Here is the input.
Amino acid sequence: MKRILYKIGIITGTIFMFTSCGGGVPEETTTETLANDKVFDVADVLAMIAEENDVTRTLYTKAIVGAGKKQGLKFDEDWQKDDVEAGPLPALFLRGISSDIQKSEVPLGLYLGSDFPINASNKLEGKQAALFDKIKKDQKPQHFFDEDQQLYTAMFADIAGAAPCVNCHNDHEQSPKKDWKLGDVMGATTWQYPSDKLSYEETMDVIKAYRDGTKAVYNAYLSEIEAFKTSEKPTIGEKWPSSGFHLPTAEVFIDSVRLLTSYHTMEMLLTKAKKSSGEVATR
Amino acid sequence: MFKNPLRKRQYIGSLIGIVIGIIIYIILPQKSAEEYLSIGPANTGHEGLSCNTCHTPAKGTVLQQLQSNISYTFGQRKTSADFGTENVDNEKCLACHDRPNDRHPQYRFSEPKFKDAIAVIDATQCETCHQEHNGVRVALPDANYCINCHSDLKVHKDPLDIPHETLISQGQWSTCLQCHDFHGNHVYLTPEKMKDTIPLSKIQKYLKGGKDPFSEEKKYMPLSEEEWLKLKKEYEE
Here is the structure.
C-alpha cells in the first residue's frame, strides 16, 4: 500500500512540477485575460465592415470603372491573364480584397454570391440561398451561426448602386439575367468571424485587414497597367478618370474611401462598444 | 569491479544504449540522412528541399513543449503546443505557392455553400489533393473531382464543339482537366474542339508527376528554398 501511495505521490509531484514550474510555450491567444475587453458584438462589426465594403465598391464602380470606361480604360474578368490588358471588374475587385484578407492573420471571411451570377461558381446555394430570398424582399441583413464551421456569419444585400453594375451585367454575354435595374438586390456579401464578441484591437484589425485588402488589389491593378504592352497607360497620380485619362494612386483612392466611411465607422466604434456589464465604454 | 553479474550486464547495456543514442543524435540530423527519415519520396518539385523547409522547429524548448502539452492534457491551458516540429499546414504551402491568380484558392471553399462538397473532398486543405511524401503532384486516385461543385454548370454561348452540358450529362468528369488546369496558373489557351484537348493519359501522367502537358510557361513561379529562406530571414529581422 505504501509503495502504491509512494508511486502516486511521485507521479502527482512530477505532473505538478511540469505544469507549474517555469513557463511553457506561450499560447497564441489569451482570451481569458481579454474577456472584459470584448466590447463589440460580431453582428455590429460585420455590419460596419459590410458598409465600408459598400462604399469602397461603389466608389470603385462609379469613379474607376464607370468613369474609366468613358476614357477608354478596359475592365475584364480575365484581367490577370497575360494576354488581357484590363482592370478588375467590381466583383473581382471584391474577390481580390477577400483573397488578401484570407492571407492576413485576421480570421475574417468574405464572399460574394447571387442567384443570377455571371460566373456559375458564385451562385448562392443551400442556407445562403434561402436567406438571400429574405434579403431580396426586405434588404435587411441576415445573421446566423454556421454550425459546421463554428463561424458567426452575416449576409448583407449587394444593391445595384451605380449604372455600370446594371449595364455590365445586362450586356455580358454569359449573364443569365439581362433586365437588372438600379436599386435591385443583385446579390449578397457573406461575412464570417469565429467569435461572437470582439475587442477594440480585434475590431481595428478587421478594419485594417479590409482596407489593406483594398489597397493590395488596387495596387495589383496598377501593376497590371505598368505591364501593358499595347494599350495606352493612364497617368497615375492625384487625378481621377472623371477629369481625363488618369487614375488615382492607391493612397489617393484609399484616402477617398476613408473620407467616405470614417463617419459611420467612428459612430459604430463609439456607440456600440459595451462593457460586459452592459455599460457603454468610456475610453 | 562488479561483484554481481546482473549489475555488470546492466552497466554494459546502459553504456551501449548511450553510445547508440549519441550516434543517432549526431547522424540523423545530417542532411545526408534525410532520405532515411522521410516517410516517402517528396512530391514533384519538392525533391531538393531540406526537411526543415516545411518541418520548421516548433516554438520553445523541448522541455517547454513537454510542459505545455502536459498542462493542456490536465486542462491548465487552452491549446496544445507543437512538439519537435511545427504542423505543416496551408500556411506553410502558401508561403511559397500563394498566387494572386489562383482559380481555386483553398479559402474559397470555406464559404457555407461548399459544405456538402468539402464533406466529400476537403478543398480547404492543400493536403487533401497534394498529400506529401507520395512522389506525385496530386495524390488523388481519379481526376474527376470537378463533379463535386460543377454538376449544374451551364455555359452560355458554349465555345466547345461538344457542349459542356453534354459532357456533364454523360458524366465525363475526367475531361475537365483536359482544358482547365485546376489552379489556373499555366499560360495556356483552351481549345474549342474536343479532339484538340490534352489526352486524359497525359493528364494522368502529369498528376502522377510526369511532364507538364499544359505549358512550360506559368504566370507565377513558386519560391525556391533559397528565396523562401531569404524572405523568412528578412521577416524575422
About this structure: Chain A touches chain B through 44 residues (CB under 8 Å). The longest strand of chain A covers residues 151-159.
